[in-house]
Design a protein that fits this description.
The protein is an alpha/beta fold. Helices cover about 50% and strands about 15% of the residues. Among the domains are: about 90 residues, Gyrase A, domain 2 (2-Layer Sandwich); about 80 residues, no CATH class; about 190 residues, Isoleucyl-tRNA Synthetase, Domain 1 (Orthogonal Bundle), CATH 1.10.730. The chain is built from 22 helices and 20 strands. Strand 3 and strand 4 form a beta hairpin. Helix 1 packs across helix 2, helix 9 crosses helix 10 and helix 13 crosses helix 14. The two termini are about 40 Å apart. It binds one RNA strand through helix 3, helix 14, helix 19 and helix 21.
Length: about 625
RNA sequence: GGGCGCGUAGUCUAGCCUGGAUAAGGCGCCAGCCUUCGAAGUUGGAGGUCUCAGGUUCGAAUCCUGACGCGCCCGCCA
């Protein structure tokens, strides 16, 4: 149940209806609540109940007859309830109509009272969340699939903040991988001069070049392994080359994120982890557990393994031993991930020092882990989210399972893999090694999108300044890309097609932005007339009321998305597309209202009321776009 | 071998968790609407064996079982 301090007009209306129905049908509130639905067409009613079907079983009566009986009692009850004007039955369905005027008044009053915080709630206040995304290797630019990850992570963060969580956004930088060693090897032969190229693109191309030599020469492989060893020693020449290279690459990748409105609070660097002592602390913790040990014989002799067979789900595995540390003492990926996850929950004392990595355009610094610098204070987290492709479902599950084996049951349960499908081309995935990302980097897509948007802006605003056109083109382009990524259900693979990603018509961000621009134009052209009193009881026509209802549902919609997150076998579900769908629906209803209900030319009392509705719409749409990270436009 | 996801008009998708009234949108196609707040809009139309077969139910796109098709995952790798 929603707390009273949060404005949630739709839920309030629903609760009132549920209460009356429960009384009329002489049954529990829960039973009624579960039977409530929205009728397929609003001419049938604003809410409906299928309670008669449920009761038919126990009462052994015809559902339609039950519905009529309930209706008779309901008729009396609604006289005392100002929010409900009419109830009727259609066969077994009990249909409820809100009192349009009263409902409009409470909704609009809620919105104007809450303003920019309309839609936020305190439901999850006091809980802290750490979320990691998008963890791109610092050896290439983001391709458009990385953008999907980052946009999902950022929007999820926004939603969680809206429902009361404190969210810390973390980026993971793997500066010790094979990719980095390969690039350092290459950079010792070629100039580190990127020329006009953005540094991450420069590296990305170099990386593709390296692959062929690497695959075809054992000599090169040997040399790269040598570099790899040197990287462990922070004082080595190779480590210095690497440090500078990675710094420049991450900085370049950040620029891409900034264009999309994506910012972080912290970066955790692998090189810092390697020298922090975290790994040996984690190993010591692991080895103390009953189900984690070192086999003395067999093919895994000398490794530190977790015995998964004690977990029901894995008891039938052919080989239930999951290796965390190899027989040579080095960690596997799973081992490292477990250590990192322990650190994220504060189960390992934070050994890091922190330094400012960059000052972000949102005015906040992003800090990185280092070995010098000031101490940080990340604090404890209740929930840890990792935004990672769905292909990593199994490895992620391993990490959480090991946590459970170690006795950290609560932390294991509160570890979530936010899974999503990849973005690819028809018949092929993006690959850093093969360079299939070329032409599909996030920068390329944003550039092309901005270029196309500029053409559109030019046509519509030929007399505006170049600065204005550039700004709007950018807002439209960024919005279009973010919406495109969010509007696809995360469990569905996206086959990237330019004409689809860059379509500015229909079900796309510019439609939402446009509706907002139109609303603002109306409000801008209004001279405030304080002579006339606001009478919200005027808003009773279909287009007006449909818009009111959509506005009233916004807080519930945001909460629903947060509540619907659920741990599944393949990861934790996150319905990003529900928020875009809401925004699209809201824009549609505004467009219909706009078309059929003149505001400025209406007679004074109606005009005043409609202006209040337009203003409520503007507030709601603005808040919704902010969650989606879609730029707010004034004109376009 | 085991597991996961997906299958809905020409096309791209939403709905499936939590069963309910005529299966909802975008793009494309056809026909309208700018002397009235911005046409990136709006009104109407054509277009469907919801992959298939069983089952549960008063009721199934939705839940269960089994097929089929497509994609992915199951290393002391990274």
């Amino acid at each position: 149940m929603t707390k009273a301090i949060d404005d949630n007009p739709w839920d309030s209306g629903k609760q009132a209806v549920v209460k009356m129905l429960a009384e009329a049908a002489d049954t529990t509130v829960e039973t009624v609540y579960d039977s409530i639905e929205v009728p397929p067409d609003s001419v049938m009613g604003d809410l409906a109940s299928t309670l008669a079907f449920t009761l038919a079983k126990e009462l052994k009566k015809n559902p339609a007859a039950i519905a009529s009986e309930v209706l008779a009692k309901l008729q009396k009850l609604i006289e005392k309830e100002s929010l409900v004007s009419k109830v009727e039955t259609k066969g077994p369905y009990i249909n409820i109509f809100f009192d349009r005027a009263a409902f409009a008044k409470t909704t609009i009053t809620s919105v104007s009272k809450s303003g920019s915080s309309y839609g936020t709630s305190s439901q999850f206040k006091g809980k802290r969340v750490l979320i990691e995304f998008p963890a791109v290797n610092p050896s290439k630019p983001w391709h458009i699939g990385h953008a999907r990850n980052a946009i999902l992570g950022d929007t999820l963060s926004n939603i969680l903040e809206n429902v009361g969580y404190e969210v810390v956004r973390l980026e993971y930088i793997n500066d010790l991988g094979l990719q980095i060693a390969q690039l350092v090897w290459k950079l010792k032969q070629v100039s580190d001069d990127a020329g006009d190229q953005k540094y991450d693109h420069f590296l990305g191309h170099l990386y593709v070049e390296v692959q062929e030599t690497f695959d075809n020469s054992e000599e090169v492989q040997k040399e790269v392994r040598e570099v790899s060893r040197h990287l462990e020693d922070l004082q080595s020449e190779d480590a210095k080359i690497s440090g500078e290279m990675v710094r420049k690459c991450v900085l370049a990748q950040c620029q891409t994120g900034y264009r999309l409105g994506i910012f972080h609070n912290y970066q955790v660097w692998e090189s810092a982890i390697a020298h922090s002592g975290i790994l040996s602390l984690a190993r010591d913790m692991m080895i103390k557990c009953d189900n984690i040990f070192i086999p003395e014989e067999g093919d895994k002799a000398g490794c530190i393994v977790a015995d998964l067979s004690v977990i029901d789900e894995f008891k039938d595995l052919k080989d239930p031993y999951k290796i965390l540390f190899r027989s040579d003492g080095t960690r596997t990926y799973t081992g490292a991930d477990v250590a990192l996850q322990l650190w994220k929950f504060g189960l390992i004392k934070d050994p890091f020092k922190y330094a400012v990595f960059d000052s972000q355009p949102n005015g906040e610094d992003v800090k990185r882990t280092t070995l010098q610098g000031g101490r940080g204070d990340l604090g404890k987290f209740d929930i840890v989210l990792n935004v990672i492709g769905t292909r990593q479902a199994h490895p992620q599950k391993m990490v959480y399972t090991v946590l459970d084996l170690m006795g950290f049951t609560k932390e294991s349960e509160n570890s979530h893999h936010i899974a999503y499908e990849f973005v690819g081309l028809e018949g092929q995935d993006f690959s850093g090694r093969q360079g299939t990302w070329v032409g599909y980097s996030t920068d390329d897509v944003l550039n092309k999108s901005t270029e196309m948007a500029l053409t559109e802006v030019n046509q519509r605003n030929p007399d505006e300044s170049d600065e204005f056109k550039a700004m709007v083109a950018n807002q439209v382009a960024v919005g279009a890309i973010r919406y495109f990524m969010l509007n696809a259900s995360p469990d569905r693979k996206i086959t990237f097609r330019w004409e689809q990603a860059l379509d500015f018509n229909g079900d796309a961000a510019p439609y939402l932005q446009y509706s907002l621009a139109r609303a603002k134009r109306i409000l801008e052209k209004t001279e405030r007339d304080n002579e006339v009193e606001v009478d919200l009881y005027q808003l009773t026509s279909d287009p007006e009321f449909e818009l009111v209802k959509a506005i009233s549902k916004y807080p519930e919609e945001v909460l629903d998305v947060a509540r619907a997150m659920k741990k599944e076998v393949w990861g934790t579900s996150f319905f990003s597309n529900r928020i875009t769908a809401y925004g699209y629906g809201l824009a549609t209803l505004f467009s219909k209202f706009y078309d059929s209900c003149p505001v400025l030319k209406a007679e004074p009392r109606v005009k005043k009321a409609r202006l209040a509705l337009v203003e409520s719409f503007m507030i709601t749409m603005t808040n919704c776009l902010q969650i989606l990270g879609i730029p707010i436009v004034d004109r376009m």
